[in-house]
Structures are given as C-alpha cells and as structure tokens.
Design a protein that fits this description.
Mean pLDDT: 77
Helix content: 40-55%
Number of strands: 0
Number of helices: 7
Largest sheet: none
Length: 238
C-alpha cells in the first residue's frame, strides 16, 4: 500500500497543459463558480483570492479536474499510509534480490520511496504518465464539453455523456440526479480532507514540530531525502 503514497509524492496529477488563468478575452464564456459542486455548509463558497472572478469556463473546468485528480490520489495515499502504519504490506518481493515490501517499508514515511529500487520508481512514474495521457486524450476533453473527473471506460464519449450520441458506461446510472450530486460533493470533500492530510504528513516528515499532533505519533521532521521536490531516482539502473 505504500506504493500508493509514492504516487501522491510525484509530480502533480493535474493536466499536462494548464489554460491561462488570466482574464478571458471578450466574448469568452464564463461559468458561475458559486454554483459548482462541492460548495457546502458551513464554509459555503470559498474563494479568498478571487481566482474565479477572472476565470473562463475552460479555466474553471481545469481547476476542478485538477482538484478531483489530486483528491483521488490523496485519498488512496492516505489510506495506504494508515494501512502500512498498522503493519499491512503487499506480499512478495519488491525487487529481483528478494527484498520484501515489509522490509523496505520500515522507517520514516517518505523513506519508502528512497528505498524503492530505481527501476521500480521509474515504472511507477511511467504508469502515472500513461494514465494521465489516456485521461487527457479522452474525447470530448473536459475543457471542451467533457466532464471534469469523468474517466471513459469504453469507446466513445465520457461515462455520463451517453446522451451525446456515443456508447459509454455510467457507473452511477442507478442513482437519480440528487443522489449523484450528493456523491460528487462527498468525493470532493473527502478529497480535500485527504490532500490536507497528506500535506500534513509531508510537512511533519520534513519540518520538526510543524504538525504537533503528528510529532506525538513519531514524525520527527528529520527526513532528508529528495521528496517531494524530486521523485526521480539518482540512477536509472538497479
């Protein structure tokens, strides 16, 4: 499960090319950010920097897609941290020398990535890149009519765009519109909380006393490895 943590420590999971966040050109379609999913009590609409005021619909969709992807990775990573913290590990060996996942996973939280063989790290990075390429290649793209966060599982349009005229798989077809919205809000809120949790883990691992609660759980803040700035191995060979 600690391999999941490595995914969260890699380069951001957002789209390869971000649209400009500057003020849209005259006539550009604007979206009402105050009516988007994920706006719930008691916080309500939260945009202290006013980023949505000058954003086009395309930019807002890019923000939302990035938030969903980061949130999903963070939720998986946080779960992996909890499971491995309780002593759970993948069975078998992590390398050709026969080292087990359990032996590599001992020590500080972020040290697992540094102990992972270089070839293994490159495999993980390549897999993340391949998944991102497939996601960004979907048509319609989420910046041009597609749904941010919707992953196409079949040929044609994105899963819940079957009404657009192509084949698709809708895993939420059994739910009505109100239930869908509730589940989307739940995913966004859980993802936001998980991102805060993973950021706390990283901060507590690198900065002594930055997260007092975690300091009491063994996070000394003395990690000196390359994460999170540089996930690449120093050598591309075993």
């Amino acid at each position: 499960m600690k391999l999941v943590l490595a995914l969260a420590a890699l380069a951001p999971a957002s789209a390869f090319v971000a649209p400009q966040a500057s003020a849209p050109a005259a006539g550009a379609l604007r979206a009402d950010a105050s009516s988007m999913d994920g706006i719930l009590a008691p916080v309500g609409f939260f945009d202290p920097l006013g980023l949505s005021k000058s954003a086009s619909e395309e930019t807002l969709n890019w923000y939302r897609a990035a938030e969903i992807k980061h949130g999903r990775v963070a939720m998986a990573a946080f779960l992996g941290c909890v499971v491995t913290g309780l002593g759970g590990h993948f069975p078998g060996a992590i390398d050709l020398q026969g080292d087990s996942f359990a032996s590599v996973g001992t020590g500080q939280l972020l040290e697992f990535w540094d102990k992972t063989p270089a070839a293994g790290r490159l495999q993980i990075i390549s897999t993340v890149g391949a998944i991102e390429y497939v996601f960004e290649s979907q048509q319609p793209h989420y910046l041009r009519g597609g749904t941010p966060g919707a992953v196409r599982l079949t040929r044609g349009v994105a899963p819940w765009h079957e009404e657009a005229g192509g084949p698709g798989y809708d895993p939420m077809a059994k739910y009505d519109a109100a239930t869908r919205k509730t589940k989307r809000d739940m995913e966004l809120q859980n993802g936001r909380l998980a991102m805060l949790g993973m950021a706390s883990f990283v901060a507590a691992s690198k900065i002594p006393g930055s997260v007092p609660v975690l300091a009491g759980l063994g996070f000394a803040g003395d990690y000196a490895g390359a994460l999170p700035s540089n996930p690449l191995p120093s050598s591309f060979f075993m």
